[in-house]
From TrEMBL:
It is found in: Membrane. This is YhhN-like protein. The lineage of its organism: Bacteria, Pseudomonadati, Pseudomonadota, Alphaproteobacteria, Sphingomonadales. The chain crosses the membrane at residues 12-29, 35-53, 60-77, 83-100, 112-129, 135-152, 159-177, 189-209. It is a multi-pass membrane protein. InterPro entries: TMEM86B-like.
Amino acid sequence: MSRRALVEHRPWLFAAIAAATIYYFVRDWQIGELWLILLKGAGCIFLAGYALARHDGLDARLLALVMATAALGDMLIELDFTWGGAAFFASHLAAMSLYLRNPRPQAKPSQKALAVALLFITPLVSWLVSGNSSIALYAITLGGMAACAWMSRFPRYRVGVGAVLFIVSDWLIFARFGPLAESDLPQILIWPTYFAGQILIATGVIQTLRTKG
């Protein structure tokens, strides 16, 4: 889809991508902390609007809740890491509810094994890179979210991969407390991996709801 078509037919999605891109490039500018916080949250707020505009069912409203609470997390984490984590905890619970409402009719043993791996490896790696037990506890819901996404009827190469990108983004955040404390890599990669994941999740869920009900 061309940029013009995206603007005309998916204005909420275009606004989300635009807000996230602008934030990435201006986040170090001296334009006021409040404005940067609001701009950071705008990306997922627009994705919530996209979900509500593209479908009117309960699952779309749950997706909107996932994105709205993630937006709250994006903003709160700039003020307090714990409160930001609490908002993302709520977002993961809402996402798990959405995915569990939409199970995949048949799953191969290898797919089930990967879901189990996501559930257990996510908190384990989170603890290893951060050395923080509270982060590991939070990561149980992160891994649960990804595992449920992988086992849902939504396309794995969008929603499943999006959930995995979310995990990678959080691992980069946690690694700043440990092995990547002196590295610029987290600063460069956290936001792109996170928001690419959210875009994949939102578009994958909505595509399925619109084509398969």
